[in-house]
Design brief:
Layout (H helix, E strand, L loop, with lengths): L13 E5 L2 E5 L12 E3 L6 E3 L6 E7 L4 H19 L3 E7 L10 H12 L14 H13 L10 H10 L4 H8 L7 H15 L8 E4 L4 E2 L7 H6 L2
Parallel strand pairs: 5-6
Antiparallel strand pairs: 1-2, 3-4, 4-6, 5-7, 7-8
Helix pairs in contact: 1-3, 2-4, 2-5, 3-4, 4-5
Length: 231
Amino acid sequence: MRATRVVTVLAIGLSLALTGCTSQVSGTAKRDPSTAPLTLTKDKYGIAAGFDDAPVRLEIYTEPQCNHCADLQADFGDQIRYYIGIGQLQITYRTLTFLDTGSNDYSARVSNALFLTAGGGPGGESADRATGTQFQKLVEELWSHQQPGGSGPTDDEIADFARDAGVPEGLTDAIRKAEKGVDTTEMEDINFEFLTEVSDGEAGTPTVYDINNDKKIDIYDNDWLSKLMQR
């Protein structure tokens, strides 16, 4: 199993100095959701949404045509986006394309667009990318407009979803033009290998893996996310 590390977030006390009086406010500092970072993983085939020092760090293995993956986003997407925004959760998305068949490249096109959103491309990782919360919103939109077995959303439609999620215009233009964001064949090979490793041989999507505690999460427990966040 890959090495894990546990990061502790310290509570910070905030003081307000006012003219003629002083007030003390205590608690955990909250981060601005607009600053939640979005980066490629070191192997370049995962997309990490959220701060590296988030106390809960998960990997989600997902396929754009997987209806159970769509259910996961419908049930927990809003909560995931909230926790990413306040700095309590980092999600690394690892997309797969095993449901593409023949000339149907639905999952590959969606995956490529996601990597463009994260600054991927043939020249390497670029400085131009969306935020972690914008990316999570785009994931929710794409999986909520799923067309399993069909042709999938057009590049224009994906770009429109990205624009509506707040993704910068330069990136939505790249999506609309179907520029290359990742080698989807290599991505599938690498991510499926990782999925097999974390699943103990029972590879399927969606799979949620707890990086810090080196274990697969039971996502069929309706309270799995809230339990993780309360640790």
